[in-house]
């Protein structure tokens, strides 16, 4: 008997989990410490929270057919949810407030091409 075929939603979820693990491995090799993976709150989710030296970065990971497509998939509403989730993380981790903060993007074009954009966007004041 064959295993049931995965739905498109399951395939997309699996691809996202793979991309986040790939990005975390890449960042660890670059000297970052991964503080959180798939950090979920009622405000939203942050794929990775990483630290290097005195910088904490909130990282959105996107895997698409092209790097441009991955970057274009990050909407203003998504940035707002990530920012709100980051604020919650900071409220729960006071030590993080002593660090410089930024928002990064890891764009992945399977099978293995990766682009890391540090400080990819800023919060509007």
SS summary, helix count: 3
What percent of residues are in strands?
Answer: 35-45%
Elements, N to C (H/E): HEEEHHEE
What strand line-up does the widest sheet have?
A: 1-2-3-4-5
Low-confidence stretches: none
CATH class membership: Alpha Beta
Q: Terminal Cα separation, in Å?
A: 58 Å
Number of strands: 5
Averaged pLDDT:
91
Q: What general outline do the C-alpha atoms trace?
A: globular
The CATH architecture: 3-Layer(aba) Sandwich
| CATH topology value | Trna Endonuclease, Chain: A, domain 1
Question: Describe the biggest sheet?
Answer: 5 strands, mixed
Proportion of helical residues: 25-40%
Taking all Cα atoms into account, the compactness measure Rg is: 15 Å
Please give a quick description of this structure:
The chain has helices at residues 8-29, 67-72, 76-92, and strands at 33-40, 45-52, 55-63, 100-109, 113-121. It is of the alpha+beta class. A hairpin with a 3-residue loop joins strand 4 (100-109) and strand 5.
């Amino acid at each position: 008997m064959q295993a049931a075929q995965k739905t498109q939603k399951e395939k997309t979820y699996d691809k996202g989990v793979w991309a986040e693990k790939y990005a975390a491995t890449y960042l660890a090799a670059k000297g970052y410490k991964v503080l959180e993976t798939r950090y979920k709150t009622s405000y939203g989710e942050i794929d990775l929270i990483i630290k290097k030296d005195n910088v904490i970065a909130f990282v959105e990971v996107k895997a698409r057919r092209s790097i441009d497509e991955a970057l274009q998939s990050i909407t203003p509403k998504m940035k707002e949810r990530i920012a709100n989730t980051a604020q919650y993380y900071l409220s729960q981790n006071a030590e993080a407030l002593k660090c410089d903060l930024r928002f990064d993007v890891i764009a992945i074009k399977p099978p293995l091409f990766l682009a890391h954009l540090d400080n990819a966007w800023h919060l509007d004041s």
